[in-house]
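Before relying on records like the one below, remember that each one covers exactly one chain. Contacts with other chains, cofactors or solvent are not represented anywhere in the record.
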Amino acid sequence: MPAPTSSLFSPVTLGNLELPNRLTMAPLTRTRAIDHQPNALMAEYYAQRASAGLIITECTMVTPDTSAFGHDPGIYSEEQIAGWKAVTDAVHAKGGRIYMQIWHAGRSAHPLLNGGKECVAPSAIAIDDETHTPEGKKPYTVPRALTKSEISDIVEDFRRGAANAIAAGFDGVEVHGANGYLVDQFLRQSANQRTDEYGGSLENRTRFLREVLDAVTAEIGSERTGLRLSPLNSFNSMKEEDPVRWIQYLGEILNPYDLAYLHVMRADFFGLQKADVIPAVRDVYNGHLMVNMGYSAEEAAELISHQGADSVAFGTAFLANPDLPERIKAGAELNEPDPSTFYTSGAEGYTDYPAMSR
């Protein structure tokens, strides 16, 4: 009888990569990039986790002055490209594979984190919440609605960010279309109330995403391009009236892109919006489907065994267990993550989680 988690360790093709297992390290914001610059501590952190089938980095800014977290990394300068090259070299030296998540925060980029620069979004609608700033917790500001010319400029930022990521040695990029950041702000009704060709119908609300994917895939190839979506997540004041119809529409229009993968988050951080979105997208999407949010190793293995997905991304489990695949294979106990160090700036709670005792 096969082990309960054996399907997680079967090889799988993702774009132009052959992955040795189906355990992906999900993108996790960690705020260790002081002044938005990747560094040696980050290289150590990612290299420790090189046994993942695929590593996806934390969200990385494609243009300056769009920070949502204060010490989030960028990929818009030569210095950043060089810093990330040290990261990818360290991961590849351990036999790993690594994608960069490229990102624009949109209305979640607070001016106090960006030298006073106003934030932008599809529509002038603020996030109904507060965020951490150098002056303490402050309400999000009302963004300025983007002009069509500015939208084209940001599409170019994504194209250039993808090119820079490949120059830095990444195996590919994941376009961040989830969790209430700019791409997601265009995609969902609660943040997009435009009346031009970028708003209204689902076709119009997906236009910005399609333009970004057209630019990125033309630059680096569809086989090196992934996309993350969150049809249910209400984080950052997001809502869609019919998330099942929404994700099925997205799945259908994405098929012609022949992406390396589609990465779908199955739940809402706050549990407010609920629907069975993974089977819905699996029914219509023909490519590699990666799923995420709260899967145990056993549940993930069962899903893959029944062809419900092709790979599963793990977040805090990888954060606290640099050798997560080995631990799962051995049935070993997992380290518990320490939330108090998720967004600090040093090695504690970052590179000091112990590997499994041999």
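The domain at 6-314 is CATH 3.20.20.70 (TIM Barrel).
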